[in-house]
Amino acid sequence: MASPPDPQVILADDEKLIRDADLQALIDQAIASGEYRLALRYYYLQILRGLGKVGWIKYESDKTNRDYSKELRPRTIHSRFDQATYWYEYIWYGGFLIDEGQFRQAEILFQDLNHQIESGHE
Fold first, then answer.
1. How many domains does the chain have?
2. Residue 57 pLDDT more than 50?
């Protein structure tokens, strides 16, 4: 008898998450369950939401992370956004698992970037 397939997390599309989701609650839930890759994904979406909210980027579902980086180029926040993008793409798209220590390192950057965006300081 064949074993059932492993359950898979079905993720809503980025646009819906950015527009409607309580990303902080999703981050907290992912951290509590040890899903650090997923937590970084939600942090990155939170950054995109914040950047759109303050008008530093225009979020569009067909844009790439590089498109957003180009929009931010005249701002001092650009290099920190590129660092966050590197972490996100490496972990999420690369499919790499990270442990709690690695996550906590990346989390500092993501949280600082979010605070910088929320305060309106580039």
1. 1
2. yes
